[in-house]
Each structure stands twice: as C-alpha cells, then as structure tokens.
Amino acid sequence: MATPIPDEVGMLYDALIDSASVTMGKNLHFGYWESPDSDLSFDEATDLLTDLLTERLHVGPDSRLLDVGCGVGTPGVRIARLSGAEVTGISVSKEQVERANALARSQTSACRAEFHQANAMELPFPDASFDAVVALESMIHMPDRGQVLREIRRVLRPGGRLALTDFHERTPLPPAHRAVVDVMLKDLMSTMVQVDDYPRLLRTAGFQFTEMRDISEETLRRTFQTLTERAAEMPTEVLDKLDWKSDPKDMIDVAGFGYLLVVAERPRADDRS
C-alpha cells in the first residue's frame, strides 16, 4: 500500500467535498448499528459512532478537545454542542475547514467550535493544551501513525484521553479479497494496520492502553450497503470525475477487512514534553 501524502489527501477531499456529502452524509465517516436489526438511518448511525467515541473521552464544559481530521465539522460541532467542551478541529482540506467553520458559525454562541487547516504530523499547538483528542477515521490517511500518536500525546495533558477509529486486517485476506481492499485503499489514499499493531504503537508513543475493540460487525456491512445504494444514484459525470476503480458493493462481504475502535490515555504521572 502506498504511503499517503498529506497535501494530496487534502486535495482529494477538496475535490470530493460535494460527492462525499452525497454518499457519506453529513459526518463523512462510517455508521454504527448496535444490532443487525437496528432501524437507525445512516446519518443517525454516524452520529451514534461519534457519540460512542465521545463518551470514552470524559469531556465536559471545562474541557478542550482536539478533533484530528474534522471533515466538514459535523462531529466536532456535535461534541461541542452536547458536551459543552471547547472543540478545535483540523483537516488538511481547505474546503472542509471552510465548511466546518461555516457550520460552527451557524450554531448558537454556546457551541464553542473552530477549525483550522493543519497537518496532524506537525500539530500547531502547545504542549499539554488539550484534555482529549478524537480521530474518527483520520488515521487511515496518516503517512506515519506513530508520528501522529507522538504529536497527539504531546498536545494532551497528563491524564488526557484519545479515542480513534482505524481500518485493520482482522483476519488474513485471501488474494481475491486483498485485491479488492487494496483498490479501495488506493482510491481513498489510505492504509490499514494489522490487528495487533496498536498496543505497540501506543506504548512507543507514550500512551497507556485503555481499550481496543473490533466493531466491524456493527459498522462495515451496513455502511458499505448504504454507500452502494447512494453510489448508484450519483450522476455519471460525478463518477467519471472521481475516476475511482473501487466499488463499495465489492467490500460488503470482505470478512477479513476490519474496523477498530481504540482508546488510550496519556499517563497522569507523565511530565515529558
């Protein structure tokens, strides 16, 4: 898998901003359904995934939260509105940041959220300046997950929490399925980890491991089914512009492809800069 290049990822999302909203909805990330027979809509399920991560961060009105890979701001604004926390979001996409700030401005003054164009590999914030960090599907685009985790630990206060989601290979992929996954990852300028990578990555970056949960069953099938339905309704000229080789319907039954939820904490006794 090719290493993502941040500037190119930003340009990808600049170009995708309208079509992605049609297919992925307001949150631009996968949905979470607690059971196969859940009647949640896709947008409700994506909100639920945001909430699932937020509740693990223990944030409130006195908290400062960093949203790494903020998309068009929907998750960050939701967190700010429901928790009262002060939210700062970043994205490498100029267009996403503009729309995220427009969304934040449309809220009441009680919603404290702002968004900046920045690279997670070099976070433009002082040491120990946030109480929590959320990274919803943004790690998939990072050229060096370890470097990003080190930067996140740096800007977290001791005792601060990180909650993220990522793609992982949950079981060995047979050649036919690997080819399908590789095409999708190339189109998305993303990579995936192995199932046992995160404990090592977190320890090396200076984190205390808290939770690692495979939520593939709750997220993948219905998300790819929704994307398949919505892609079928996309105008031909939009699909031609994307020039993607992957088809979401091909991912519906790829059992070895997984979706991971990870929670970690900067140790409270950690005073390293």
TrEMBL record:
GO biological-process terms attached to the record: methylation
Family annotation (InterPro entries): Erg6_SMT_methyltransf, Methyltransf_11, SAM-dependent_MTases_sf
GO molecular function, one term: methyltransferase activity
This protein's UniProt keywords: Methyltransferase, Transferase
Protein EC: 2.1.1.-
Highest taxon of the lineage: Bacteria
Pfam families (alphabetical): Methyltransf_11
Keyword Kinase: no
Protein name: SAM-dependent methyltransferase
Class of enzymatic activity (EC top level): transferase
Residue ranges constituting the Methyltransferase type domain according to the UniProt record: 66-163
